[in-house]
């Protein structure tokens, strides 16, 4: 049996992740008319690479091992945690960073303060997580990748 077949869940997850990252600058362009290749390595954006990766993994494991297997249950729980983290914890962490930066700017402007502690100059990512529509895009991409790869490898 070849490596692609024996490692099908792994390769499906990797391909879904890479495709999601490659697609991000194009979807960003469709929304803003600004093509920025940096989005291929950025966090956040459409589609969610976190969601596409774990969804492809779950689907591939379900195809190979069956949906009643322990391994499928483990990957499903893992996927739910990752997706929840991407759309909730990480998303709101990014929102918190935006709010904090705005508060600092407002304080400086309103009270004519000059905040010079190095912590105020630390570069932080503002976009860390995903909105639900971005996670949905990743979910659909992950399912599609797993199904196409399964068909090409004779699993379906």
TrEMBL record:
Keywords: Membrane, Transmembrane, Transmembrane helix
InterPro entries per record: DUF212, PAP2/HPO_sf
Top-level taxon: Bacteria
Pfam entry (one): DUF212
Transmembrane domains' residue ranges: 71-93, 132-152
Name of the protein in its database record: Divergent PAP2 family protein
Source organism of this protein record: Dielma fastidiosa
